[in-house]
């Protein structure tokens, strides 16, 4: 059976400096992300054990642990791909067109996603998602790793708003981190996630007005 694996980064730990320090990247990837991968695999083992013993008395806690750790794994894996050194431009092509269509302007989108990150209560993520029923882009807050995401929504782009993502470098100035990350977006990555997500059909065409553009 498939196991979850910590993916290597496409760049060196220090490649995103000065916006994200190499020390943060090393700890964030090697300790925090790895922890979610290990715990997701460990939870799968415990579920297998429970099935073997026909004892599901701990199923609620195990499902919660699986959702927390697997979602942490998925979100971090997307986050690393979303970032690239020497970025900082606005997106282009179809991604840019849909951002303007659904948020009014790139600046409006940037302000909204940054505010989504800055106002998360406790730990969580800000996300740009593709919503396949109305076939539009939306932002959302993901508390911890695993909630408040519209069912069917596909995550395209995320900002890690957990303290471990910025505290060593930005201390209590977390909004400075949320501004700095706009120097690092890999728009080619976000655009290819969008293209893939647009192929998703939830088979409930009557649930939104017809999409024309
Ligand atoms: Fe994180």
Overview features:
213 residues; mainly alpha; 3-stranded antiparallel β-sheet; 7 helices; 3 strands; 48% helix; binds fe (ii) ion
In short:
The chain has 213 residues and is mainly α.
How can the largest sheet be summarized?
Answer: 3 strands, antiparallel
Backbone structural class = mainly alpha
The tally of strands reads 3
The helical percent reads 40-55%
**H/E topology pattern:** HHHHEEEHHH
Task: Characterise this structure.
The chain is mainly α and 213 residues long. 48% of the residues lie in helices and 11% in strands. The protein contains seven helices and three strands; from the N terminus they run ααααβββααα. The chain has helices at 22-53, 59-82, 93-103, 106-118, 167-170, 174-180, 187-197; strands at 124-131, 136-143, 154-160. The protein has a three-stranded antiparallel β-sheet. Strand 1 and strand 2 form a beta hairpin. The model has no long low-confidence stretch (mean pLDDT 96). The structure holds fe (ii) ion. Fe (ii) ion binds at residues 28, 32, 76, 160, 162, 164-165.
What's the topology here?
Layout: H1 22-53, H2 59-82, H3 93-103, H4 106-118, E1 124-131, E2 136-143, E3 154-160, H5 167-170, H6 174-180, H7 187-197
Helix pairs in contact: 1-2
The chain binds fe (ii) ion (FE2).
């Amino acid at each position: 059976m498939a196991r979850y694996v910590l993916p290597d980064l496409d760049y060196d730990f220090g490649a995103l400096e000065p916006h994200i320090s190499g020390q943060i990247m090393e700890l964030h990837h090697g300790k925090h992300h790895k922890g979610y991968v290990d715990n997701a695999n460990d939870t799968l083992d415990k579920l297998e054990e429970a099935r073997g013993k026909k004892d599901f008395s701990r199923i609620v806690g195990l499902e919660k642990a699986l959702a927390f750790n697997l979602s942490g794994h998925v979100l971090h894996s997307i986050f690393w791909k979303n970032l690239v050194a020497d970025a900082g431009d606005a997106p282009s092509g179809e991604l840019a067109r849909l951002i303007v269509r659904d948020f009014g302007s790139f600046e409006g989108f940037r302000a909204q996603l940054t505010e989504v990150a800055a106002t998360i209560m406790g730990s969580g993520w800000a996300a740009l998602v593709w919503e396949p029923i109305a076939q539009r882009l939306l932002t959302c807050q993901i508390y911890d790793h695993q909630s408040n995401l519209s069912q069917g929504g596909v995550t395209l782009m995320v900002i890690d708003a957990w303290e471990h993502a910025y505290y060593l470098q930005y201390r209590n100035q977390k909004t400075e981190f949320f501004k700095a990350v706009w120097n690092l977006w890999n728009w080619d990555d976000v655009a290819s996630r969008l293209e893939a997500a647009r192929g998703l059909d939830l088979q409930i065409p009557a649930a939104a007005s017809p999409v024309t553009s």
